[in-house]
UniProtKB/TrEMBL annotation:
Molecular-function annotations in GO: transmembrane transporter activity
Xref: InterPro entries: ABC_transp_permease (IPR001851)
Residue spans crossing the bilayer: 28-50, 62-95, 107-129, 181-199, 228-249, 269-297, 304-325
Natural source organism: Stackebrandtia nassauensis (strain DSM 44728 / CIP 108903 / NRRL B-16338 / NBRC 102104 / LLR-40K-21)
Domain of life (superkingdom): Bacteria
PANTHER family recorded: ABC TRANSPORTER PERMEASE PROTEIN YPHD-RELATED, ABC TRANSPORTER PERMEASE PROTEIN YPHD-RELATED-RELATED
Keyword list, A-Z: Cell inner membrane, Cell membrane, Membrane, Transmembrane, Transmembrane helix, Transport
GO (cellular component) term, any one: plasma membrane
Cellular localization per UniProt: Cell membrane
Protein name: Inner-membrane translocator
CDD domains (UniProt xref): TM_PBP1_transp_AraH_like
Topology relative to the membrane: Multi-pass membrane protein
Length: 334
């Protein structure tokens, strides 16, 4: 057998025949059931919950974290983790805003520079993990602090206002019946679709799963494991840059005080969506379901008059339950 033939293993998951057993054991099945049950529950508690405007608002509220979670999914699939997603996004948004407002650059150039900046952060994270062999947890924890400090130093602690209209266009809405939907929400859904296709329909996507499942075994087949991991971190950085643009579109300003809560929220969404923190198992569409679960719970609890602190409590319980289920599933499959 040649090295080339081993380097591109067939997408086994795509060739398996459909069956109820396969459906019930799919990582995304449990999160989908949880999402449906949560939606039904909150619909019984509020007459306005299951309406177009309410559901559109949930999409708007999760579009930034959802986009960040796409990048986080790529990294977790290769058995990594990124604690710096939110602060990298915040720095990217400040770069975009200040270049457009203070430096007077055309807004497409400023946006491109912001996305490129986030991509470089992802590349550096990947290089430290793959070349220096540092643990992803330590690397991204350090990068969290670096990006946070750079954001506050570059912005001088000031919010950037008077942004060009083009930079906030994704926050505009269009009508579907009596419901207003933001272009940013649509962009998030498109990104989920594109990444789902890449993961399920390309050799690179299959390699991400292979590296996350068994890095040493994958290396022995001739697949450049470090290169796959580096590409995952770099691609995730570019996606954080898109999230930075969505953040600006949603808030209308460049705010240096954002980004700290999104780090854990993105991990929460990935875990709730059924992706294993140990890598190699999961789906980005599951992450979409995880993001929606968080959005549904928060919106539903808000409509029931529950305060912010209990909402955080519920989110923490959901994360522990999801990780517990994942751990039990791994033990059963051994």
């Amino acid at each position: 057998m040649t090295k080339t033939s081993l380097a591109t293993p067939p997408p086994v998951a795509l060739t398996e025949p459909w069956s109820w057993k396969r459906l019930l054991t799919a990582p995304v099945f449990g999160p989908c059931v949880a999402l449906v049950l949560a939606t039904v529950f909150f619909a019984t508690q509020s007459a306005t919950f299951l309406t177009g405007p309410s559901l559109s608002l949930i999409l708007q509220q999760v579009m930034v974290v959802g986009t960040l979670a796409i990048g986080q999914t790529l990294i977790i699939l290769v058995a990594g983790i990124d604690l710096s997603v939110g602060t990298i996004m915040a720095f990217g948004s400040i770069v975009m805003a200040k270049l457009a407002v203070d430096s007077g650059l055309p807004w497409p150039v400023a946006v491109g520079a912001g996305i490129a900046t986030c991509t470089v952060f992802g590349l550096v994270n990947g290089l430290l993990v793959t070349r220096i062999k540092l643990p992803p947890f330590i690397v991204t924890l350090g990068m969290l602090n670096i990006a946070y400090a750079l954001t506050h130093m570059y912005s001088a602690e000031e919010t950037v206002t008077n942004l060009p209209a083009g930079m906030t266009a994704l926050g505009e809405t269009f009508a579907i019946g009596d419901t207003r939907v933001t272009y940013g929400s649509v962009l998030m859904l498109v990104l989920f679709g594109v990444v789902a296709y890449i993961l399920g329909g390309t050799a690179w996507g299959q390699r991400l799963y292979a590296v996350g499942s068994n890095a040493e075994g994958t290396r022995l087949t001739g697949i450049p494991v470090d290169r796959v991991r580096l590409a995952a971190f770099t691609a995730a950085g570019a996606i954080y840059g898109i999230a930075a643009l969505l953040l600006i579109a949603r808030t209308g300003v460049g705010d240096p005080k954002v980004g700290l809560t999104e780090n854990l929220e993105s991990i929460t969404a990935v875990v709730l969506g059924g992706t294993s923190l140990f890598g190699g198992r999961g789906a980005v569409l599951g992450t979409l379901v995880g993001v929606l679960i968080v959005g549904v719970f928060r919106s539903g609890l808000q409509q029931m008059g529950v305060g912010a602190t209990p909402q955080i409590l519920v989110t923490g319980i959901l994360v522990i339950l999801a990780v517990t289920v994942d751990q039990l599933a791994r033990r059963r499959n051994r």
